[in-house]
Design goal:
This protein is of the alpha/beta class. The protein is about 35% helix and about 25% strand. The longest helix is centred in the last third of the chain and has 18 residues.
Length: about 325
């Protein structure tokens, strides 16, 4: 295969899903309502898990190993939904097989792994994209347009938080260092990605965290930029935060309410104007937008998405690496 799906004229993109957890189930459910996408295969490390997932979601084919899915000619693109620690190996296998890949966030455990995958995808001309659904959300895309058009002047600050209260169960994947657990990679990737979408990669990173059981459970970050702009970001596994985001400029601000990473709309405040409410049609809490962007790219013969550029994903991973260095967080084997 050449890394781009075959002729998609008159038919939907046929997806293979790797893993059978909650996010894989959501992706499959969300695509069930989309006319331009269908999940035709699922793979897990065991046949029993794959078969149960296939029966539950009406998926035609189930495989007990990833290689069998990679060899299935009915699959146009692959969605990798494994735990973070398995992203690198899974994505590499499918890139080696010439399969277009959408990989769940965070891209990998660190920037070195991510860089290796990006280099491989570019070398072989295979489509690759991080599943940062926030970047594909219509309200987020509209905000970016407004900010770039100067609606709030020069961006001076970004504030964003994402925290949930996770039961203190060491068996929970978010508390398992072997799976790349912790608040930063699972939740903090959203505030960091949001800030870098607006401001780019920071020049300076300061961070503090509470560590427990080999993972971070409560983390704060301050990103600094040469322009003088800054981003104040938090993530947590021990506090149900507001999950909001604000972009403040020299002449106004944009406010996202709870669930800023999958918003339906936002409020624009500008000096001398009444607050303006922006709302986008269609569902907000859906992974279909990222699948639609992959489909658009495949139909256009593009190996990288301009909405979720690989260079941007690498920049986010470098920031996450720096935060981990600042807070002293290392995963097994590092």
């Amino acid at each position: 295969m050449d890394g781009v799906a075959g002729d998609l004229t008159g038919r939907p993109v046929r997806w293979g899903v790797v893993a059978t957890g909650g996010i894989a189930a959501k992706f499959t459910r969300d695509l069930a309502a989309e006319p331009d996408a269908e999940v035709v295969a699922v793979a897990s490390r065991t046949e029993a898990s794959a078969a149960a997932f296939a029966e539950r979601h009406g998926v035609p084919a189930a495989y007990g190993d990833w290689a069998a899915l990679a060899a299935d000619p009915a699959v146009d693109a692959v969605y990798v939904a494994t735990p973070h620690s398995a992203h690198h190996d899974a994505v590499r296998l499918f890139l080696d097989a010439g399969r277009p890949v959408l990989c769940e966030k965070p891209f990998t455990l660190d920037a070195a792994e991510a860089g290796a995958l990006v280099a491989l995808a570019r070398e072989r001309g295979v489509f690759l994209m991080e599943a940062m659904w926030m970047y594909c959300n219509p309200a987020i895309r509209r905000m970016v347009e407004l900010v770039r058009d100067g609606a709030i002047g020069e961006v001076r600050a970004v504030h964003a938080d994402f925290g949930i209260d996770v039961p203190p169960d060491p068996a929970h994947r978010l508390l398992d260092p072997a799976l790349g657990g912790g608040a930063l990679l699972d939740l903090g990737v959203y505030p960091v990605s949001f800030a870098q979408l607006v401001l780019g990669e920071p020049a300076d990173v300061t961070a503090w965290a509470r560590l427990r059981g080999g993972v971070d459970t409560h983390t704060g970050m301050l990103l600094g930029y040469p322009s003088g702009a800054m981003a104040a970001l938090t993530c947590s596994l021990v506090a149900d935060t507001a999950r909001t985001a604000v972009v403040t400029g020299s002449t106004g601000r944009v406010e996202f309410h709870r669930g800023f990473f999958h918003p339906r709309g936002f409020t624009l405040h500008r000096e001398g104007h009444a607050p303006e409410e922006f709302s986008e049609a269609g569902p907000a809490d859906t992974l279909a937008y990222e699948a639609a962007e992959v489909a658009r790219c495949l139909r256009a013969g593009e190996r990288e998405s301009p909405l979720v550029p690989l260079d941007g994903s690498l920049a986010v991973m470098r920031t996450l690496d720096t935060v981990r260095e600042r807070i002293g967080l290392r995963y097994p084997g590092e």
